[in-house]
Amino acid sequence: MNTIIDQILILGILAGIGALTFRFKILEEGAKGVIEKLVFYVSLPLLIVTKLSMLEFTAEIFRNAGLVVVITYVIMFSQLALGKLSAKNISLKKATNCYS
Questions:
Q1: How far is CA 91 from CA 7, 81, 82, 86, 87, in A?
Q2: What pTM, to 2 d.p., does this model score?
Q3: Which of 1, 17, 61, 81 is surrounded by the fewest CB atoms within 10 Å?
Q4: For the chain, which residues score pLDDT lower than 50?
């Protein structure tokens, strides 16, 4: 758990530094897209792979990972069903585009 919290704190600090660089105009607006892609498509996947490579995989880890995946899908589909049911009960119309 500490590892996860540490990584979230590091990402939060990096996000704060990024926000400050744009706030004080250290980086131009065009750099924002490049940095976002670098962080989300390169750094984060590498961080995940690096952390996974340090783990010692046991049956308990695989069991817990499978349980997390199953529970995630159960929650997502339950929310979808609940949303459709409640929309039907309060007679919501189909979504319309607010910008047209």
A1: 44, 15, 14, 8, 6
A2: 0.46
A3: 1
A4: none
